[in-house]
Amino acid sequence: MIDKSTLTFLTELNRNNEREWFHAHKTEYTKTLENFTELTSALLFRLSEFEPDVVGTEPKECLFRIYRDVRFSKDKTPYKPWFSARLAPGGKKYGGPGYYVRIAFDGGGLAAGTYRPEKEKLENIRKRISAWPKQFEAAVEGALFTKHFGELAGEKLKRPPAGFKKDDPAIERIKHKSFIGWHEVPKRTVTSPKLVDHAMDVYRAAGPLMEFLKKGMGL
Q1: How many CA atoms lie within 13 A of 117 on its CB side?
Q2: Nearest to 63 by CA among 82, 77, 50
Q3: Contact 186, 215 (CB under 8 A)
Q4: What is the per-residue pLDDT across 70-79, written as a single tens digit (0 to 9) for each?
Q5: Mean pLDDT, the chain, as a whole number?
Q6: Measured distance CA(40)–CA(128) in Å, rounded
Q7: What is the pLDDT of residue 17?
Q8: Which of 78, 91, 163, 74 is nearest to 122 (CA)?
Q9: Average pLDDT of 102-119?
Q10: Is 22 a residue whose pLDDT tops 80?
């Protein structure tokens, strides 16, 4: 699904991350973006088998720009040496949990969950974890989740958030600011015809977490 030429372009971009080089290779960029868009389309189609709300979502609504925002970053390179997309109803701006795919010069990544949800939704997720700690643990410590994601990822607070007691049995989970399962994809799998099947296995493994987050966010 992902052509080797796409990884070649991303490898060269990583080595020559400057505007002059990028503009000189704009035709190659366009072709590789089309290749990644095709992958995004295939993922959305298969994802609709168990996430019907994504039906009708256009691949272009899911794509993140390759151009980096360098205003507040020490890294001033202008481009990301990867393509990425958020697969969710209506695309990347969806306010609920979703799925993610990244194709980089050195491999790829798949993810599921929610990244820094807005304040009210984060508060509600935390309240649900406090009220249903065993259900949440089952979602992130089940055999399939552990197999594909290992541990729950995402930034955490150093102290309990306001309104939650430090002796809450689920306090370490409650401290999370994001709730994400992250899965590294080897470079050989990125260019394999089985990539989409592999992604579906990974996304399905996040099912219990996604359902928990949806309920917590009132979706």
Answers
A1: 23
A2: 82
A3: no
A4: 787 788 899 9
A5: 96
A6: 32
A7: 97
A8: 163
A9: 97
A10: yes
At 11 the pLDDT is: 97
In the block, residue with structure tokens 């994001």: 178
Length of the chain: 219
Instruction: Give me the half-sphere count of Cα atoms (radius 13 Å) on the Cβ side of residue 71.
Output: 1
Give 180: exposed, middle or buried? Use CB within 10 Å, 0-12, 13-18, 19+.
buried
What is the secondary structure of 109-159 as a DSSP string?
EEEEEESS--HHHHHHHHHHHHH-HHHHHHHHHSHHHHHHH-S-BS-B-SS
Tokens, residue 69: 């925002």
Under 8 Å between Cβ of 161 and 126: yes
Which pLDDT band, with edges at 50, 70 and 90, does 1 fall under? confident
26 within 8 A of 49, measured Cβ to Cβ: no
Contacts from 121-128 at CB under 8 Å and sequence distance 24+? 121/95, 121/216, 121/217, 121/218, 122/177, 123/163, 124/216, 124/217, 124/218, 125/179, 125/213, 125/216, 125/217, 126/161, 126/164, 126/174, 127/216, 128/212, 128/215, 128/216
